[in-house]
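Chapter review: from sequence to fold.
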Amino acid sequence: MIRPMTRRRFIRISAAAAGLAVAPIGAVARADTGLVTWHGTLFGAVATLQIHHESRGEAERLVNAAAAEARRLERLFSLYRDDSALVELNRTGVLVDPDAELVELLERSRTYAELTDGLFDPTVQPLWRLYIEHFTRPDPDPSGPPPAALRAALDHVGYDRLSIGRDCITMPHGTAVTLNGIAQGYVTDKIVDLLRRQGLAHSLVDMGETRAIGPHADGSPWQVAIADPDAPGRAATVLSVIDRAVATSGAYGFRFDPQGRFNHLFDPRTGRCADRYRSVTSIAADTTAADALSKAFSFLPIEQIKALMPKAKIERVVTIDRAGVVADLVL
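The token string follows.
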């Protein structure tokens, strides 16, 4: 199975004010501020938990429980684990007695596909395969895959090709599913649910996308930076969030070619790659929605994004266009 060539973070968490050092991957760091932080990896990206708790021992227990739950869900949704349920579905075209979370996430994916007239589509994996196979060949054509190959891949794309049931999931030969456009948001929401059930009121969860539980313990908002697409280690703008989710999609996140003309955001209608914006950030109460809609919005002009925001329950969208101009759309 081909693995990604690179992965850049879309969202950078600003934790400098807490005086936190970066911990080893999968480790817990302690800070004098009463904030306990964990860093690990999930779906090939850096994952972070920041938890305020009066008991450090309890905070570390909760961090470990959250990390274990994230790993469990990754085993369902990952394309890069040979033992994942999603890999099994793509390999055989059928999954009997699927896990409830996989059914739920596929149903959520179908909801957002219908809401966006197919702009969000979990069946674009054949396009990924086409582009990765094209650009990993010796001396690939820099203009991208040939039109005939693109049309052949598109024949297998379409969310209506999926049959989703609690007892069985099926799809025709040639169709393949990716949940990379929504799974990180979903896992983030599941971790937030777990921590809330334990009574946490001040935490920041980042499983590839970000959601705040309440404010900092001192009442101040969490600061979430939107990366500058030209220099992802630098912030283009910073959002102050309390009890909200933030998800960003950007063509800079993965590029198939050195020139950056081809990226991982596929238009399911044409098979071409997103180029309208450098990045799109969605802010909502729900990370799953923010994650999925940031992908769909990447193909829409500003006025259509505004029209779709209320239906999608997206409260705010921040776009950075090709000229570097930032637009802040508030519902």
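Two observations follow directly from the output. Helices lie at 56-77, 85-92, 100-115, 125-135, 147-154, 183-197, 287-297, 302-312. The domain at 85-170 is CATH 1.10.3980.10 (T-fold).
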